[in-house]
Amino acid sequence: MEKKSEKRHELATFIVSYLYHKITTSEISNEDRNEEILTEFSVHDLKSSYENSQTLFKINIGIDDVEDALFIYPE
Length: 75
What we know:
single chain; globular; 55% helix; mainly alpha; 75 residues
């Protein structure tokens, strides 16, 4: 359970960083940056981006792991 939680945390950190970088490098005006910004991505794109990233301690992941990291548990 602890290993799964660590994997989810590492993937979630990567995903947030990846999406933030994708948004900041897009051509959005400064006025629009204060609004909600929609961006397109796919689970397969996130998986391949993680696998191609230059992380020091890379873990083996699958599509299910990416989907699990994207899942938000309701409060």
